[in-house]
Amino acid sequence: YNKGIKQRRCNRMKQQTISDVEYSARKRKTKREEFLEIMEEIISEYYTRDIGMEEVMESYVIILFTELLRVWRDETRKQASVSREVQILELLAYIEKNYETCTLPQMGKAFGMHGNYLTALLKEKTGRSFVEHVQEQRLKKARTLLETTELPLSELIPLCGYNNMNFFYRKFREAEGCTPARYRKEHRHTL
Fold it and tell me: What's the confidence (pLDDT) of residue 82?
């Protein structure tokens, strides 16, 4: 039995001399296999009762718990990442549903987060801030109404969530490169 253990130790030493890439590829044992191997080493040390047994066993226990902590950390990160992705989709759905009256403090309250954190999270994950997402939804609604209705702009603008006509005109021109009236004229063929 001792021969097998010494052989494994020898193999482990050989692995240390292999390049990092090869070692990493070979190391891709399942975590269960790694844990079992460490446990076997601990048991082997216990039964061999050799010099330094306690120190070696203590070292293996430290290695075992370190590996367990790493697995826990990695799994926690994976779960947090998935949770954040779901959260981003929920945030975008909320904006899409409530764009007419949506404010950052309201959204923060709805999701139990500070508004600054929400907009930073949106910016990090989508490349656009809360305000940019809200503007996008409002302008999308404006384009749809301009293409499919004959509502005068004075009635159409509030339906898109805008209170200020000049602000709406400026944002629309920035996004579309033309006035709302010209856009309607050019895209009216859908009526």
Answer: 46
What tens digit of pLDDT does each residue of 41-89 get?
888 888 888 888 888 888 888 888 888 888 888 777 766 654 566 588 8
Q: What is the DSSP string of 86-111?
A: HHHHHHHHHHHHHTTT--HHHHHHHH
**Cβ–Cβ < 8 Å for 122, 129:** yes
- Distance, in Å, from the CA atom of 26 to the CA atom of 17, rounded to the nearest integer, reads 13
What is the pLDDT at residue 145?
93
Report the first-to-last Cα separation within the chain, whole angstroms: 85
Q: What are the structure tokens assigned to 125, written together?
A: 């994950």
Rounded Cα distance between 141 and 87, Å, is 24
Would you say 141 and 161 are in contact if contact means Cβ atoms under 8 Å apart?
yes
Alpha helices, H only, 104-164: 104-111, 115-126, 130-148, 153-159
Asked if 67 and 34 touch (Cβ cutoff 8 Å), the reply is: yes
**Rounded Cα distance, 157 and 145, in Å:** 9
Q: What is the rounded CA–CA span in Å between residue 6 and residue 12?
A: 10
Give every residue of the chain whose pLDDT is below 50, as ranges: 18-25, 82, 190-191
Tokens for 87, please give them.
């959260």
* Rounded CA separation 1/126 (Å): 58
Pairwise CA distance, residues 161 & 150, whole Å: 18
